[in-house]
Request: fold
Amino acid sequence: MTAVAENPLVEGLERLPVHPTVLVIFGATGDLAHRKLLPALYNLAHQGALPERFELIGVSRSTYEHEEFQAIARESIERFSRTKPDPAVLDGLLAEMRYIPGVFDDDNVYAELGRTLDELDQSAGYPLSRVFYLSTAPQFFPVIVGELGKAGLNRAEARETRVVIEKPFGYDLASARKLNADVLEVFDESEVFRIDHYLGKETVQNMMAFRFANALFEPVWNRNFVDYVQISAAEDIGIEGRAGYYEGAGALRDLVQNHMLQLVALLTMEPPTAFDANRLRDEKLKVLEAIVPPEPEQVPTMAVRAQYGSGVQGGVTVRGYRAEDGVAPDSRTASYAALRLQISNWRWAGVPFYLRTGKHLARKVTEIAVQLKPVPHLAFQSQGSIGVQPNLVVLTVQPDEGVSISLGAKIPGPRMRIRPVNMEFHYGTSFLSQSPEAYERLILDAMRGDATLFTRNDEIEALWGIVDPILTAWKQDTDSEIAQYPAGSQGPLEANTLLHPGHSWRRL
Amino acid sequence: MEAALSEDVWSARDTTPDEIDDALRELLHERHAANNALVPARVLNLVVVVDRSWKGEIANRLERVGRYHASRTVLCAVEPGRTTMDARVVMRYDEPTGDALGVILEQVEIDLGEGHLQNLHSVVDPIRAAEIPTMIWCPHGHAEAVESLLPLTDVILLDSDEEPEPAAALARANELLTSAYVVDLAWLRTTPWRERLAATFDPPGRRELLWQIGRLDARHQASSTASAVLLAGWLASRLHWRATPLSARDVGELRAVAHAGDRDVEVCLDSSDQLVPGLTGVTVAVPEGWSLSLDRAPGGLCARRVSAGGTESVWKVLGASRGEGGILGEGVRQALLRDPTYGPALAHARAFYPALA
Reply:
């Protein structure tokens, strides 16, 4: 293969080039496309970030003509775009949209898709890159990938071809392995982009900047100085009519297996030698593999599941999980999960990592709290230093993105009395730019072929490997009572049993 | 800025920088005490020096920059004959709801005289927010003010398109570049064009064409010659063309031949009757017949490609116009970034359009 010289025009540009592309969205009339993908594409178009030639083909089961799909897309964009649509840009984008109706296991759909793709190549005068975005129910992922292979649409001769697969990637370790095998039979790993939209969030990416661009933190980022770490992903809403999905997923699959373990990996991995897809993912994989999955008998001592009962949220009485529409009255699905994990490597051995997530908790917040150990000797203890607390570093992912560091400071006055004060960095006050939607970044990265913010096959299996024994143990346990917590509360008291002496859950 | 913003205001006649600084602190203290979820933005100081009679127009332009407001804006309005300073401090904020934080933006307006300009740093320095970069913008010249402020300046915002003489504008930008980072709005007007040209030649199959370009046509609004010359300078710097001085062929038509090794590149800059500043179109062509034209159109750019065999293809490249408010906002945002290609592009632009003897 002949090396192609670098493009000298790229240097200094904020927006890197994206090659002319056809994006094919399977599930184009679904909720994700409606709320996120189509508005994200509009925003990219508005900013002039789409490739010079961009075509979109929607594939879905509903029977629509092109124009009807365009009308649906217009409604999605007008309702959910973060930028007020410019009529000329919106019209231009919609004019490039086509629609192919059909079920995902019908060979005719792919024959029609192939014809349409060929037509677009003909019209452009050269082979356009192809990105197949699977935004369907997960049972269709292997079906669609298999059909794409059967129709020869995976072949990348003289073009770039990629497949983007939404979450959930698998239902457990075995199904993730099977899906990986199915996908990799058709596409090369370098062509597969498994989405975890958390990785597209600016604040999540900032964790790497925070750790590796500041000499201040790295020396204390280890077992010698860190007492424990707490990661919370709390929601103040319930399942919002998504019982069909949630009953099968539960809190562990919904947030822990993907988003929260990704946060653990980014927080604890070793510095990559370069910020490129494989070197970054190599480091994440190493640390994920250092999290030892529990034996079945260990699960009750390191994991707690619970469901919200009725309670008061924001002044309004809400019903309990088992009373939600579509939820079985005897459901054992967890709407709350808390774990205590250990990372068995030199840096982190002995440091407990507490994770908790749940629906209908007191407040919506996603944060990482790194609690440092107390100072070894307190010189002013005898002078009334009751307020001295170990330093705490809190990285807030949402809703108020930023970093807060608590420090001990002297209370003004004649005596040496100390109390914690906060040093805070907030995105909103420190940057002029508005963070783009995670999907805008991820769609562009997929079209550019940059997999840095996507999950690799071995990484996804390592993630499932951590939660799989817990899922299995919970599934096998059909007798014990599922802990309950009032909606709007801090969560179940049972979560306290995971904590080591002297540790406590942060108030939400 | 959103219409629903609240304001706290302080004003004084015949005041001093120390009093203004005290007022800033006091207003911040009072506002934070009233609502501790309100915190001052700490990103950028923007110092603007304007003619008093144009203060309103500049203030309006600053209002229209979208979300890219400086944290603390110090607007110095120069009034001939004035010997004292009058000042007005405005804190703007949107009361936050729930757990959210609210951001306070601060604006200081100082009416002062020409006599203050020579030592303007002593007026501005006490009023700047500490530990954040300072950008200055003097759209009406005021070279004395620029000289005085340079020691405390990190970034200079200018607009080479607004100067009547492009050669002088480019020379001035080059001179300032030795003292601070320069953000040139004329350069920012070329950004979408540079991005599109970079993208056009990015697919590996097209990259070789870059080294065969034989002609560049840049079409521009009559007053935006500097933008067009900077675009030509950018291509010359990136593709190692040796620029030669442009000559006027007719009104609004400038021509030069750049040398790329043993190959010549025709550079043609033509003014058009477009109303908004900036470029109206760009064409690059290779001698074998391949060419690409990009021209402004509603909702983006109209692209027209002619293959070596003569086949024509026309399509729309999507993108909303940022407008002049957006360009200024982008200028403010660029204060926090560094573009390593502006300096070399400027040097080549000056070779295309050298300073007048």
About this structure: Chain A is about 35% helix and 20% strand. The radius of gyration of chain A is 25 Å.
